[in-house]
Amino acid sequence: TQQTLTNIHDHEDALNAYVTVNDDEALAQAKQADESGIDADNVFSGVPVAYKDNLTTKGLLTTAASKILYNFKPVYDADVVTRLRAAGAVTIGKTNLDEFAMGGSTETSYFGTVHNPWDTTKVPGGSSGGSAATVAAGDVLAALGSDTGGSIRQPAAFNGIVGLKPTYGRVSRWGLIAFASSLDQIGPMTQNVTDAAAMMNVIAGSDERDATSSSKEVPDYVAGLSGDIKGLKIGVPKEFLGEGIDEGVRGQIKTAIKKLEALGATVDEVSLPHSTHGIQAYYILGPSEASSNLQRFDGIRYGYRTPNAKNLEELYVKTRSEGFGDEVKRRIMLGTFALSAGSFDAFFMKAAKIRTLIIEDFKKVFADYDVIVGPTAPTPAFGIGAETKDPMTMYMNDMLTVPANLAGLPAVSVPAGLVDGLPVGLQVIGRPFDESRVLNTAFAFE
Ligand code: GLN
User: Fold this and answer.
1) Residue ranges of the Amidase domain (predicted)?
2) How many angstroms separate the alpha carbon of residue 102 from the centre of ligand 1?
3) 347-366 burial string, b = 16+ CB within 10 Å, else e?
4) Does the global pTM surpass 0.90?
5) Contact 172/82 with Cβ under 8 angstroms?
6) For residue 343, how many other CB atoms are within 10 A of its CB?
7) ipTM of this model?
């Protein structure tokens, strides 16, 4: 833990991966772990773990990378934090992210941009960019991220690490600062598939404090890693290798698919015809839920409060105007508009219908295929500042990741080589609660 703290501090100037490094308590937690030792219930004993700063940690600053929570110290731990602490993990720090996890480059953070350790002029992806960067830099073996439209998988791809978004309901969202509650899931970001499986063994499971949490039994994900994928039926959606996909990325993914075939899987082209409308549906539904979830940040209950208000109305308006950044305001406006009486049918309902069509597309393919594979992101990491001027360009980055969120499916990104010296991710999407097969496919491949 001491060495990890040193490494993190050595890298912070270059990476800015953390909002808070837990210098105060990490060593005491490590000492506790030394005293209790390691056993089967305590498999993370003394292992430093980094948490995305939208996961609450009792008494430890939790900001969601927003000015509006710049001084927020939660009174409880997120369920995932409680579980990992119970398994012996040391809370090493809280990682930087796009403000309220809204973004794909970690450039919307109130605490400044995160840099990609492969090339610090490039973004680390987002929104879990800090978690991805610190794992890729070799500081920690494991971090947690959250994924609403790709925020675990896309930064995992951009940093050459493994990132899993579990099935909706597999991991409790208790203590995750909500962005879009019907899409959000917490998941592991690690240096290899085995470690992702080990983390899932700890964080998955039911929690009565999250009404959408599943009570389905949790398998042993590590034991499920046989590495054998002979006879596995893989579908590759033609929409995932078509327009908008970088030539180099397409090449790497085709090579990856050949490797999966060589390992004994059968591969066919399939179609997810409505997935091409995923972005449009996501950027209505996500902001709609966000506009509702973010109402609670009013300057009364949490964090920042404007010093400039003369009455209650002004207190609300100025706190929110001063406390939220541009991207968050854009989403609140988009969502409020989509939910307003005059546009609810034309926007929200239409997006909800597209979501259903996307779910149906997946069901049809999964009737014949075990997993779906394709790229995680259409390009490798782009330059810092390159896409901040045009939100639409930034949103298009999520075209390959949002379908799994809209359908609630498990999906992993696993490293699949380099393009121009930058990592590319192979995405494996599975049936609901089929994390074991998804992880085993990635394990056989890596
Ligand atoms: N990049 C997507 C967005 O901006 C996804 C974010 C996420 O998964 N939290 O909404």
Assistant:
1) 1-439
2) 5
3) bbebbeebbeebeebbeebb
4) yes
5) no
6) 15
7) 0.98
